[in-house]
Amino acid sequence: MTYPIIHVPDHAGEMLEALGTKSKFWYSADGKRVLYKEGRPESSEHWAEKVGCEICRLLGIPHAEYELATWKGRKGVVSETFVPDGGRLVFGNELLAKIVRGYQYAQRYRARQHRITRVMSVVRSRGLGYPMGFVPPTEFRSAGDVFVGYLMLDALVANQDRHHENWALIIDKNQQVTLSPTFDHASSLGRNERDESRLRRLNTRDSGDSMEHYASRAESAFYTLGGVKPLKTLEAFKEAARISPPAARYWISWLDKVSVQEFEAIVKRIPESEISDAARRFAVRLLEINRARLLAW
Ligand SMILES: Nc1ncnc2c1ncn2[C@@H]1O[C@H](COP(=O)(O)OP(=O)(O)OP(=O)(O)O)[C@@H](O)[C@H]1O
Ligand SMILES: [Mg+2]
Question: CATH fold of 86-297, please?
């Protein structure tokens, strides 16, 4: 059965979400706060978001819920808020600015001070709670161990957008602080590729143009000390795995239990109106390659 496409009423777009780069707004549906977020025209962002969400579910990774959606004939996703009433999000840049003098708080992209070691020290803070509803396995020591799972997800789906406003903590109305579930995975699975280049990469014999090569190039939004280039998504995961090996082993063992056929089944459930056949094949092959690269860790 294909995933539903939620029809967002025309008049829903009254409160605009200021943060972020795409057209989006919050509205109320059945008494719940829901974000509508549009994909860039001609991109695969909306279905990439949905696939990312369903992969999180398979892997037990705490995540924002997404459904495919349409508003005024445009394509997007909807996501019910994961912030409880009276609570708020505190983003990575705000947190890092507290511990790193002169942190480039306002830099949206290529923030070279955004390092795995620093982020891990924030999310491993004593007293930081696990994401709501997450039951930690015995080997977990902190919410940072969950964050290692977010980085494994990024490497798996080739999410290139885990910048310092795409991870956060939640402060609830009683001042309890927890790690936010993972959100915003729209910039993944080769979302900007044209079908022509997808097919070329899928069918080529030229190793420089291959899917493997493509997969190896995915960049994260994390840097190392003195590094001018961002880490690759797999390097970012490995860096976190060095800091917390038991967590990395835990998440990798989950990944090992999930088959490529299960990924394929998720991609198959995206309705035909939203995704081309080439894009489906490309996404599944990318997941297959990235899964193998992660399992080789
Ligand atoms: N399910 C949710 N619950 C609560 N807040 C959310 C949810 N989804 C998104 N948000 C909030 O909305 C903001 C924008 O959402 P998101 O990051 O998905 O959009 P974006 O435009 O893709 O951002 P970016 O500029 O990072 O590409 C988030 O930073 C977060 O504050
Ligand atoms: Mg974002």
Answer: 1.10.1070
CA dihedral 256, 262, 263, 266 (to 10 degrees): -150
Does the beta carbon of 19 sit less than 6 angstroms from any atom of ligand 1? Answer: yes
Q: Which ligand has the shortest distance to the CA of 181?
A: 1
Q: How many beta carbons lie within 10 A of that of residue 126, not counting itself? A: 6
Phi-psi region of 42 (alpha: psi -120 to 50; beta: other; left: phi over 0): left
Name the helix (H) or strand (E) containing 168.
Answer: strand 168-171
Residues contacting residue 257 through CB under 8 Å, at least 6 positions apart: none
Indicate if the alpha-carbon torsion angle 96, 155, 83, 173 is positive or negative. Answer: negative
Structure tokens at 290: 């990235």
Bridge-based pairing state of the strands 67-71 and 5-8: parallel
User: What's this model's pTM, rounded to 2 decimal places?
Assistant: 0.96
Spatial contact of 184 and 166, defined as CB atoms under 8 Å apart: yes
Is 63 close to ligand 1, i.e. is its CB under 6 Å away? no
CA 164, CA 175: separation in Å to the nearest integer?
22
pLDDT digit string, tens, across residues 229-244? 999 999 999 999 999 9
H or E element, residue 118: helix 116-123
Residue 296 in contact with ligand 1 by CB distance below 6 A: no
Kindly list the domain boundaries of the chain, sorted by start residue: 5-80, 86-297
User: What distance in Å separates the CA atoms of residue 267 and residue 261, rounded to the nearest whole number?
Assistant: 10
- Dump pLDDT digits (tens) for 22-55: 688 999 999 999 999 998 888 899 999 999 999 9
d(CA 180, CA 178): 6
CATH architecture of 5-80: 2-Layer Sandwich (3.30)
Specify the ligand 1 atom closest to the Cα of 163.
26
